[in-house]
Amino acid sequence: MRIRLGIIGLGAMGTEMAEVAYRHPDFQVVAVADLNPAAVERISVRYPDVSTDLDPSRLIEDARLDAVYIASPPDTHASYAIPAMSAGKAVFAEKPLAVRFTDGSAMVRVAAATGAVNALNFTLADRAAAVEVGRAVDHGAAGTVVGVDLRFTFPQWPRAFQRDAHWVAGREQGGLMREVGSHYLFLTDRLLGPLTPAFSRTRYGSGSETSAVGVYTAGEVPITVTGRVTAAPETYEWILYGTKRSYRITDWSRLEVSDGGPWAEVALNGPHGNEHTRLTTFADAMRGQPTTLADFAAGLRVQRAVEHFHAS
After folding, report:
1. Angle of helix 12-23 relative to helix 275-286, nearest 10 degrees?
2. What is the pTM of this model?
3. I want to staple 104 with a disulfide (CB 3.0 to 4.6 A). Which of 32, 98, 149, 231 is the partner?
4. Domains in the chain, start-ordered, CATH in brackets?
5. What is the largest CA-CA distance in the chain?
6. For the purposes of burial, counting CB atoms within 10 Å of the CB of 251, is it exposed (0-12), middle (13-18) or buried (19 or more)?
């Protein structure tokens, strides 16, 4: 039986997920909701068989739904996820989990109390490059991990595809560490364990951070994070240093390896990892199967790591 899905938030990610879910054999998109009438009208024209609403609370109460996907701004996640889980619905949400610790902690508590299936849409949960590095760490191919570096640069923030999401540019909910850094901090947490902050320094412009530098540890492994909005190409880089081999992921999906010599690109086989594959995994989780997706508890650990930048 197909999973009856409701979608809250019809910005860039919500619209993309609606398109993917509408074609997905495991899902039936039953209803969508957004506070923006233009966004709702756009989906209504494209998918006339899908119910639309300007009030996300009514969607949560819809008894037809088995699951809710939440792509609204981060400070609304708890207000939608908690009643949805309490109503017996599974919840798949965009990251970050929340921006207030009280909200994130409440989401984790309710998920545990209700037993609701819960997951966050971290891109690197199933991206082939990240899966391959995880395999290398687990099987000892990397040797002893001695450090991890995360580096991001942006010539402008927000990025072009997010310009209509005004909250992304703001200090309260947006910024490059919540939007981008969280994905790579999640990967680091998954491979090495919870991250303990040691130092951070953040500078702000008229909105969100223009530069952020942080140091963490996972056990005895040092992790450094830098992010800047500056006159430089858009760059996404995550490097894991091992005593046998080191691994570098760039541009989300390109993997290179070094044994002390030049970086050499790794040919990756199998699924690339995308919104379709993560929806498939979410469906598997709802059917009681193991999942590679991050749950809300993992999301809360990442939230604590990210918000350390904004507490400095």
Report:
1. 70
2. 0.96
3. 98
4. 3-122 (3.40.50.720), 124-270+294-311 (3.30.360.10)
5. 59
6. exposed
